[in-house]
Specification:
The protein is of the alpha/beta class and 243 residues long. The protein contains 8 helices and 5 strands, in the order ααβαβααβααββα. It has a 5-stranded parallel sheet.
Length: 243
Amino acid sequence: MARRILPIGIQTFRNLRESNCCYVDKTGYALRLAEEGKHYFLSRPRRFGKSLFADTLKELFEGTRELFEGLEAFGRWDRSVRHPVLRLDFSGGDFKLPGYLETSLMAQLGQAERRLGVDPIHDSGPERFAYLLETLHQQTGQRVAVLVDEYDKPIVDALKEPAVAKANQDYLRGLYAMIKACDADVRFCFLTGVTKFSKARLFSGLNNLRDLTLNPAYSSICGYTENDLDTVFAPELPSLDCE
């Protein structure tokens, strides 16, 4: 078996596939989530593949075909239906700074609006987010897939600054509540993070999330199993002391 490029530090599904990297097929999980439910939450440590999986969901809902060839989801997903995808990523930035969370959200919404051709009419982040969901649904005729990466970083970053952490928590609660308020415009919702904050607090307005964190059926949705090492990464093993 020929050795392939190891996907070290690659977080985009397209980059990984077009670079012919080793890939442990997680598309079956993405397909199952899309077919069986609507609102999901997953907690995993950082550098564990959450962002890559979220990007896989993005390509699935956008109807990309060539990237899935040879994978489990190929041929089992109707790619003639393309859903708009709205992805928020809070993995970068310094959320210890007062007001930075709103600045980050507004910048991300602005970028999405320019890319998708939507003119904003609201000045506040949550209302602007909700209007974007509604408009995308109306313009395309398809409901929106919402992906939120590192949903909790604005709070975790600011834990040593209690006032900022509380302000960030309140702001995020209002933002995430809009996902439920706009349920008619949402096809799918997937949030990831490293912590599991009480649903009664941060997710009080989005209390219909299905938590996959400790679900045995999704235990290997991210990361590698021993069987993955023995098969996908088999060309790497002869030079290692596997014991």
